[in-house]
User: What shape does this take?
Amino acid sequence: MFLFTILLISCGENHIDKTVQSNEINPVDLVYPQLDTENSRWFFFASASRPFGMVNLSPDTEVDGAWGSGYRYKVDTVQGFSHIHAWQLSGLSVIPVGLTEKNKQTIYKDYKSKFDHETEQIAPGYHYIELQRYGIEAQLSSTKRVGFHKYAYPDASKPAILFNLNGTLGPSDITDGILNQVDGKNLSGELTIAPTHRRPKPVKLFFSVALNQEVKSIEQDEVTGNYLLTLDEGTQEVLMKVAISYTSVENAKENLETELSHWDFDTVVTASKKEWNDMLSRIEVSGGTEKDQKRFYTDLWHALQGRRIISDVNGAYPDNTGDSFRVGQI
Assistant: This one.
C-alpha cells in the first residue's frame, strides 16, 4: 500500500493527463524485465523464475563480481545460463554449444556467443534468446526449484552442453564441481559456492538433471574442471530439467520429480505467467500513464523475487548458523 500511495502522489504532482485503466491489461503484461539492467547487480535480474523461487534462471552477459554482473542490457555476449542469482550466491551455469573439430579443443575456455535484442523475448517466467555463434535457439522457464531448458540446434550440428561447475560466477567462486551420469538420460552432481567477504561460510549446492535425449558422452576438462556433455549428431530439439537443492542430491531429485514430472515446456511457461499475474494482481493501481504503471509492476516483480526460498519440497532446509552444517526440517 505504501508503494501504491507513492505512485498516486507522484502522478498527481506531475499533472499527467493521459491515464490508463488497470483492467485493460493484466499486470504481468505491464512488467518490463529489461528496465534498469544497463548497470545492475548480480541478483537484480532473473527472468525465468517464480515468485520467491529457489531457481533464478537467466542468461549472464557478465560474470565477474557482484556489481555490474548477471544480465546487462548493453553487453551483447552470453556467457551462460545460471540457476542462482541471489545475494552473495550463484551457481550452476550451463550453455548449449555446437561442436566442430576446431572448437572442441578450445570450447572449455572459448564458448561465449553473441546475441541480438531484436530477436530476444523476455517476460516474467520466460526468456528466449538466439546464440548466434552456434545457431541455437534457447528458451528458459522454471518451477520454484527446477529450471527448464529448451534448445533448438541447427540441422547437421554436433550438439553439446557445457556445464561450467568451476570458476568465478558473479559474487562467488565456484569450486569442487562434480557431474555424474546416473543413466542414459539422467545426471546428478554438486558444487561448492565459496565464501565471500560478506558470507564467511561455504554453501553446498546439489543438483539433479534430466534430459529427453540420450547422453552420448561426458568429458571433464583437466584444466578448468568443467564438463562437456555431448548428444547424438543431428539431434535438434533438447529439453533439459535442472533441479537444485541446498541439502542433498536425493532432495534435488525429489524436487524435480514433484514439481516437474512432465516434458510440456509451454505448460510450464503458461503456469509461470499465471502465478506471476496472480501475485502482481494483489495490488491494483489506476491512473497515471502506462509508463508509470509499467514502472510500478516491474518494481513489484523485482520485490516478489526478493529473498528466495531455500527449503526443498519435503521441508528439508540448510542450516549454516551453527559451528557445523546441519539439515533442518520444516
User: Anything to note?
Assistant: Residues 1-26+281-304 form one domain. The longest helix spans residues 265-280. Residues 207 and 244 are 4 Å apart (CA to CA).
